[in-house]
Amino acid sequence: MADVALKRGLLALLAPMAVLWSAATVHAACAVGAPGATLRVDAGGTGRPFLLRRPASLDPATRAPLLILLHGSGGDGAKMLADSGLEATAERHGFLLAAPNAAIPARTGFAWNIPGVPTVTGKIPDASDADDVAYLAALVEGLVAEGCADPARVYVTGLSGGGRMASWLGCVASRRYAAIAPVVGLRAGNPRPDKPDEPDPASCQPERPVPVIAFAGDNDTVNPIQGGGAGYWRYTLHAAEQRWAALNGCQAAPTTRWVTPGVYEERYAGCRGDADVAARVKVGGTHVWLADNDALWAFVSRYRRD
After folding, report:
1. Quick check: is 186 in a domain?
2. What is the pLDDT, as a whole number, of residue 47?
3. Which of 37-51, 75-89, 287-301 has the lowest mean pLDDT?
4. Number of domains in the chain
5. Which is more confident, 24 or 225?
6. 1, part of any domain
7. Mapping DSSP to helix (H, G, I), strand (E, B) and coil, where does residue 109 land?
8. Which residues lie below 8 Å from residue 50, measured CB to CB, with a gap of 6+?
9. For the chain, how long is the longest CA-to-CA vector?
10. Other beta carbons within 10 Å of 3
């Protein structure tokens, strides 16, 4: 993977969002790195580079959809790319793929800053920790400013702690992300303090409907679909689905069907903005990347932000 220096927009990637980009920069053809390569993008010497896959098939004069891939707790972007297999998916379907590192050091990697939620080391993020919501927003804005990404087609997925971060972005940044796809990590806010087997409505209040597709395994002992894991995982996968369905105003009765041998899907439809909520559960699946990448992309790419 090559190291590349960013042009004007990406050199300011982590600068305050009030930075103004010139019209010439906004409408320029994407020139970040070489097509067909995975690039380590230098984010202005901040110490938090992210990896960017730019498929060879993309027209540099056309803004592309962007999928942000968030690693699990204690991991990093490079390992997440390798484990997920999404680089090949990006090449097949023609989308940008970004794999950043989280803010908080954890074990041999990093953990995402979800306010009020302890990391795998037990640390509760505080004011000294970088704001990952703002960082990821800056990453998106930088790629938009460089003429690379379409701001209406930005999606986020992630594994485990990265799935919880993707869920959190749905809760607090629903105007930026067109759909979310957590893998073994779907949440709908923190557990209620008084009833931890239920999501706390006050901790997840998106401004608009958020299409959701989740992937899980019924033999996951880290984030069990039955709930009852760590403090942030007290409620069930079904409770998370039902809460997102309520937030999206889904009216149709939920359905369950087998999509492949050994994988069933639960889906809530009839939602505001056609923002379906779906969860695919792999029988015998454990705490690993078990998403069907083509199905993931087929779902999220249906959606655009106005």
Report:
1. yes
2. 61
3. 37-51
4. 1
5. 225
6. no
7. strand
8. 40, 41, 43, 77, 98, 99, 100, 101, 139
9. 53
10. 10
- pLDDT tens digits, residue range 170-215? 999 999 999 999 999 999 999 999 999 999 999 999 999 999 999 9
Residue 27 domain-assigned (yes or no): no
End-to-end CA distance of the chain: 35
Give the single-character DSSP code of 191: B
Identify the pLDDT of residue 4: 39
- Both structure tokens of 96: 């940008």
Range of the domain at 155: 61-300
Q: State the CATH number of the domain containing residue 257.
A: 3.40.50.1820
Q: Is residue 229 part of a domain?
A: yes
DSSP string covering 55-92: -TT--TTS-EEEEEEEPPTTB-HHHHHHHH-HHHHHHH
Exposure string for 106-141, b = 16+ CB within 10 A, e = fewer: beebbbbbbeebebbeeeebeeebeebbebbbbbbb
Q: In percent, how much of the chain has pLDDT > 90?
A: 72
